[in-house]
Amino acid sequence: MINKRFFKTKDEVEVTFELEAQEATSVSIVADFLDWKETPMKKLAKGKVYKFKARLPRDEQFQFRYLVNGQQWVNDANADSYIQNGFGEDNCLVTTGQ
């Protein structure tokens, strides 16, 4: 799930990424806005939901994917769209425009 919070006085958007991963022991987000470095997502106390928040510039597009247990790539079903990557799969796209 992706939630976006738009600020009236700032040129940025707070984007919350959430992934429900029942069998996961760890989930990371890997994104172009993080220089493609694995960044651990926070496990919420209730259930098997992992969460990550980022403030991103308004009116841009960003690529990302989730990495579960350090080995399984997962896309977000709620991504704004998808784009092919150089590995024969798709990356998720999140857009920060209204």
Automatic annotation (TrEMBL):
Q: Which InterPro entries match?
A: Glyco_hydro_13_N (IPR004193), Ig-like_fold (IPR013783), Ig_E-set (IPR014756)
Looking up Gene3D superfamilies in the UniProt record yields: Immunoglobulins
Query: Domain Glycoside hydrolase family 13 N-terminal, which positions?
Result: 13-70
Q: What is this protein called?
A: Isoamylase early set domain-containing protein
